[in-house]
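seq:
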Amino acid sequence: METVEFQATVKDGVIEIPSEYREGLSARVRVILLPEESEEAATDFIGRLLAHPIRRKGFRLLSRGEAHAR
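struct:
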């Protein structure tokens, strides 16, 4: 099975397959949708950090006591 990736715009619930990928398609295909982030979600810095935290060597979370001592 050959895997093909392309970006497309959904228009009225229809995704158009680019012409270079149409040849050789059977009647049935498997489709996996990965929606792109909206502009609003992309600008939500805290949300992005929570979803994808930055890993730093030597970093450790504060204990509850250390956090409250500050």
